[in-house]
Design goal:
Order of helices and strands: HHHHEHEEEH
Largest sheet: 2 strands, antiparallel
Number of helices: 6
Strand order of the largest sheet: 1-4
Number of strands: 4
Number of domains: 2
Distance between the termini: 21 Å
Strand content: 5-15%
Radius of gyration: 21 Å
Length: about 150
C-alpha cells in the first residue's frame, strides 16, 4: 500500500529529502539558472516543469513577492575593501587604532571570518544568448546511483 503524503505531519515533511539536500546550509532560497535548466535534456525539462507547476498549484494561497538575485562570490569580511563591504551591505571603519565592521542593521561584527557575498560577474550566459553543454556522463552517473 502506498503511503499517503497528505497524512504526514509537518515535522515529517520539513525533515525530508529537501532538507537533506540543503544539508548544513542556512540558505532560505534556491536559485536556479534558467540557462542551465534550458540546456538540460528535454525529458529532464518536462519533469522539472511538472514539479514547478505542482509547487505553484500547492502554494497559490501564499503571497508572492519578487526577489532580486545578485550574482556574487563569497569572501571573508576582513578581506574586503570598504567599497566592496558597502556593496555587500557592511560598513568598515578604520582609524589609527583599530578596524571595526558593522552589518546592515548597524551591529558590530566581531567575527572577521564571516563569509559575505560580493557582487561579481555571472559566469553563466543570459538565457537569450547562451547554452551551456551539460556533462551527460554526470547525469548518467547520478541516475545510476538512484537505480
Amino acid at each position: 500500500m502506498r503511503s499517503n503524503n497528505s497524512q504526514k505531519s509537518p515535522r515529517e515533511r520539513t525533515s525530508g529529502p529537501v532538507r537533506n539536500h540543503f544539508w548544513l546550509s542556512n540558505a532560505n532560497y534556491l536559485v536556479l539558472r534558467r540557462t542551465l535548466m534550458q540546456s538540460m535534456p528535454v525529458e529532464w525539462q518536462h519533469r522539472m516543469v511538472q514539479c514547478l507547476e505542482e509547487l505553484d498549484a500547492a502554494f497559490r494561497h501564499v503571497e508572492r513577492r519578487r526577489l532580486d538575485v545578485t550574482v556574487g562570490e563569497e569572501r571573508f569580511l576582513d578581506e574586503l575593501t570598504p567599497a566592496e563591504a558597502a556593496q555587500a551591505g557592511y560598513t568598515i571603519e578604520v582609524d589609527e587604532h583599530e578596524t571595526r565592521y558593522y552589518d546592515r542593521q548597524g551591529w558590530d561584527v566581531t567575527d572577521r571570518c564571516v563569509l559575505v557575498v560580493v557582487p561579481a560577474a555571472d559566469p553563466v550566459p543570459h538565457f537569450r544568448f547562451g547554452y551551456v553543454e551539460p556533462d551527460e556522463d554526470a547525469i548518467r552517473a547520478i541516475r545510476g546511483d538512484r537505480d
